[in-house]
Design a protein that fits this description.
- The complex is a heterodimer of chains A (about 130) and B (about 400).
- Chain A has one domain: OB fold (Dihydrolipoamide Acetyltransferase, E2P) (Beta Barrel), CATH 2.40.50.
- Chain A has a five-stranded antiparallel sheet with strand order 6-5-4-7-8.
- In chain A, about 5% of the residues lie in helices and about 40% in strands.
- Chain A has one helix and eight strands.
- In chain B, the strands form two sheets. Chain B has a nine-stranded mixed sheet, sandwiched between helices. In chain B, strands 5-6 form a two-stranded antiparallel sheet.
- Chain B is globular, with a radius of gyration of 19 Å.
- Chain B has helices spanning about 25-40, 60-70, 85-95, 145-160, 160-175, 190-195, 225-230, 260-270, 285-295, 305-310, 325-330, 340-350, and strands at about 10-15, 50, 75, 105-110, 200, 205, 215-220, 235-245, 280, 365-375, 380-390.
- In chain B, strand 2 (about 50), helix 2 (about 60-70) and strand 3 form a beta-alpha-beta unit.
- The chains are: A mainly beta (about 130), B alpha/beta (about 400).
- The interface of A and B includes residues 65, 66, 67, 79 and 87 of A.
- The complex binds zinc ion.
- Zinc ion binds near residues 30, 44, 46 and 49 of chain A.
Chain lengths: ~130, ~400
């Protein structure tokens, strides 16, 4: 998949990645308009309120779209998953026969540890 | 203030190279600038406005202005990926209408082929500090699998088929066979496309564009200058620009920003899709062509598959001739950015200077459509409507 990439530190989203390392999947929600968004940010991208908070996500969703990257040494399935909380997020689908992946398929979150210690939220069939 | 008829494209030049070994990037920019100036019949010292994007080496326009020895009073380095150069045409018209420059030069150049860049199949990061990067990069988003997800969703919602997408490549190849400079001149069939290897489902190798070196340039001038030159007069009748992104997670991959830039351009031009004789449509893959045609209103949303099938995009055969140079799919995709060549072929058509085998008869109104970035994440859309002045 992707090569290692040196990322600048980001205080805005560090709590998200810390929770991932603890096996918890957080979603950012706005107390002003009530909507969850993705990717997480401090100012709500819908109403621009700064009254946004972390909440525990269900970790459940359905596949909005996907594609299997075939012409690489290790094929992988990239996808957008629509979370039960509302927003769709980019991810990969793991732990399944890629040829069984379908749009609309229910999936649940899992965490994959990367070389840099990051716990990356990925999804597997529910 | 409208820019309708306020500016003319007086010069257009596409570099003939497709593999620029032995030519530096700055040199390519300068060579296309020289070519466009000669096409217009203007000299370097006539240029007082310069436009470039992220493919130009250095800090915005500064290093290339230095290299070329330009004396400028207006610069613009708007970068919306491959659509930048269409936006530059519109912004040049605005600057000209506002009296900020008289002769605007726009350049694009790149050497991804010589540099052996894994253009479509490796994740690319423009700036690691971009807020989306940690939430995307590690999943392996590449150019091809992001567009593939658009195609997958379009097929799911509207029943679009791989064979319908293939017709877009077929039409491009029919045109490219007449272009001496095109990278792929072999005519292909629907079967050839759908039987080529899957790169990222549902896109096949022949759904993808070429990787090429090269570049292009445009000269945009005020009307009085265009009338003093010895070239056919092509004027900007309308323009629209619009970024589209993930909308806080309310993702919809079935349409592009052309849904907004298109109507803005048509409104300014005072024409409708039915009036357009020729269309240049950005074609990094087959699927963006189909989506943009729908978004521009050439057919209903979801009906693009039926619209592009059976040769409807082939010059002399179908209702809407597109990319008669062979497009990015077969001809040229310099710097992995398609907008410049889209404008250049539209200018050729309006001047009557396209290859005789693909020239659209009485081509007096053309559209050029570009997107830059990725339709699968965030992109800038730009639409130009260009007219030949009789
Ligand atoms: Zn809000």
């Amino acid at each position: 998949m992707a090569e290692a990439l040196a990322l600048p530190s980001n205080p805005e989203t560090e709590p998200f990645w810390q929770a991932c390392r603890e096996g918890r999947f957080l979603v950012r929600r706005c107390d002003s308009c009530g909507q969850a968004h993705w990717y997480p940010r401090t100012l709500c991208p819908f109403c621009f309120s700064d009254r946004t908070v972390w909440q525990d996500g269900s970790g459940r969703g359905t596949i909005y779209s996907f594609s299997i990257m075939r012409r690489v040494p290790e094929p992988y399935a990239i996808a957008y998953v629509t979370l039960d909380e509302g927003p769709s997020m980019m991810t990969t689908i793991v732990d399944c026969d890629f040829d069984t992946i379908r749009i609309g398929m229910p999936v649940t979150v899992a965490f994959k540890t990367l070389d840099d210690g990051r716990a990356l939220p990925v999804f597997r069939p529910a | 203030m409208s820019i309708r008829n306020q500016a003319y494209i007086a010069g257009a030049y596409e570099h003939p190279t497709r593999k620029a070994t032995g030519i530096s990037l700055a040199q390519l920019h300068a060579e296309v600038a020289k070519g466009a100036l000669e096409d217009a019949g203007l000299a370097k010292d006539d240029v007082d406005g310069y436009f470039c994007a992220g493919d130009a080496p250095g800090l915005g326009p500064l290093n290339m202005a230095d290299y070329m020895g330009l004396k400028l009073r207006h610069v613009d380095s708007t970068d919306t990926g491959g659509s930048s150069y269409l936006i530059h045409v519109a912004h040049a018209a605005q600057a000209i209408a506002a009296g900020k420059c008289n002769v605007a030069l726009i350049t694009l150049a790149g050497r991804p082929r010589s540099e052996g860049m894994a253009t479509g199949t490796a994740p690319r990061v423009w700036n690691a500090a971009a807020p989306d990067v940690p939430f995307e990069y590690f999943y392996g988003p590449t150019v091809v699998n992001m567009y593939a997800m658009c195609a997958m969703r379009h097929m799911h919602e509207f029943g679009t088929t791989a064979e319908q997408l293939a017709w877009i490549k077929v039409a491009a190849s029919q045109h490219a066979q007449w272009n001496d400079h095109a990278m792929l001149r072999e005519v292909v069939t629907v079967e050839d496309v759908v039987n080529s290897p899957l790169i990222a489902d549902p896109l096949h190798r022949l759904d993808c564009c070429v990787i090429s070196d090269g570049g292009g340039a445009l000269i945009v001038v005020r009307p009085e200058i265009a009338r003093s030159l010895q070239r056919p007069k092509v004027r900007l009748r309308g323009a629209g620009e619009a970024p589209k992104h993930q909308m806080g997670g309310k993702i919809d991959l079935t349409y592009s920003g052309a849904r907004w830039s298109g109507p803005a351009a048509f409104a300014e031009a005072g024409v409708t899709p039915a009036d357009i004789k020729y269309a240049s449509i950005y074609d990094s893959f087959t699927i963006p062509v189909l989506m943009q045609l729908e978004d521009l209103g050439f057919c209903e949303k979801g009906r693009g598959g039926a619209f592009v099938a059976d040769g409807n995009l082939i010059s002399g055969v179908g209702r809407l001739p597109f990319n008669t140079d062979g497009g990015g799919l077969c001809n040229n995709h310099p710097a992995n950015r398609g907008g410049m060549t889209k404008v250049i072929e539209a200018v050729r058509q309006l001047r009557g200077e396209a290859h005789p085998r693909v020239q659209v008869r009485n081509c007096d109104l053309a559209l050029a459509q570009g997107t830059g970035g990725s339709l699968g994440t965030r992109h800038g859309s730009a639409t130009l409507i260009l007219e030949r002045e009789s």
